[in-house]
Specification:
Chain lengths: ~110, ~110
C-alpha cells in the first residue's frame, strides 16, 4: 500500500518565478492538506482540499493556490516566489471520516535563490 | 505568542532512559492532540493522537493531556537510538477548523548508545 507521494523531491527556483508541487494521497484517502515547514520550525498549515474544493485555509497570501483532481491528487502552486518561500512543503492525506489522522508525504524541498 | 509552544532542545539521553517531551498551548478551543515523529529529511509520522485529558499508551509511548493546564506530554520508555528524531506536538480545534493542525516547533531528541 503506497503512502503519500510527492514530486519533485527537491527543486531550485529563482525569485519571482512560479512553482507547482504535486501530491498523491494514500490509497483510500480523499482529503489533502498542504503545509510549509521552514528549517527548524514545525509545519504551518496552508490549506486543505476536499471534493476538489478548498475547504480551509491558513494564514498564507493568495500567491499560494491549489487544486485537487477527481482522483484526489493535488497540486500546490506558488507564484512570484520570494526568498522566504524556501522551505519543505509537506502534503498530508486523510480519510474524510478520520480527518484528524493526517499522514504526511516525504515533502518537496524548495530553494528560492 | 505562538499557539503551541515546544522546547526545541536539543535533548540528549542514554539508551534505555525515559524521555519526557512537553508542549503547552494557549487556545482553549484545542480539543485534539497528536504527536508526530520526524526523521531527518523525511515527512512527519503520526505516533499517537488523543482527545480527552488523561493518558493513552501505545507500546513504549505514552501520551498525556492535561486540558486544565493546557499541557501535553509524550513519554518514551526504554529509549532506543532509533528513537533519535524530531518530535512534534500538534493540536486541532475541531469544528470548522477540523482539518487544520497547529504544530509546535519540535524537539530534537538524540538517544546515544
Amino acid at each position: 500500500d503506497a503512502g503519500v507521494t510527492q514530486s519533485p523531491t527537491h527543486l531550485i527556483k529563482t525569485r519571482g518565478q512560479q512553482v507547482t508541487l504535486r501530491c498523491s494521497p494514500k490509497s483510500g484517502h480523499d482529503t489533502v492538506s498542504w503545509y510549509q515547514q521552514a528549517l527548524g520550525q514545525g509545519p504551518q498549515f496552508i490549506f486543505q482540499y476536499y471534493e476538489e474544493e478548498e475547504r480551509q485555509r491558513g494564514n498564507f497570501p493568495d500567491r499560494f493556490s491549489g487544486h485537487q483532481f477527481p482522483n484526489y491528487s493535488s497540486e500546490l502552486n506558488v507564484n512570484a516566489l520570494l526568498l522566504g518561500d524556501s522551505a519543505l512543503y509537506l502534503c498530508a492525506s486523510s480519510p474524510e471520516t478520520g480527518g484528524l489522522e493526517q499522514y504526511f508525504g516525504p515533502g518537496t524541498r524548495l530553494t528560492v535563490t | 505568542q505562538k499557539e503551541v509552544e515546544q522546547d526545541p532542545g536539543p535533548l540528549s539521553v542514554p539508551e534505555g532512559a525515559i524521555v519526557s517531551l512537553n508542549c503547552t498551548y494557549s487556545n482553549s478551543a484545542f480539543q485534539y492532540f497528536m504527536w508526530y515523529r520526524q526523521y531527518s529529511r523525511k515527512g512527519p509520522e503520526l505516533l499517537m493522537y488523543t482527545y480527552s485529558s488523561g493518558n493513552k499508551e501505545d507500546g513504549r509511548f505514552t501520551a498525556q493531556v492535561d486540558k486544565s493546564s493546557k499541557y501535553i506530554s509524550l513519554f518514551i520508555r526504554d529509549s532506543q537510538p532509533s528513537d533519535s528524531a524530531t518530535y512534534l506536538c500538534a493540536t486541532n480545534a475541531g469544528g470548522t477548523s477540523y482539518g487544520k493542525l497547529t504544530f509546535g516547533q519540535g524537539t530534537i531528541l538524540t538517544v546515544h548508545p
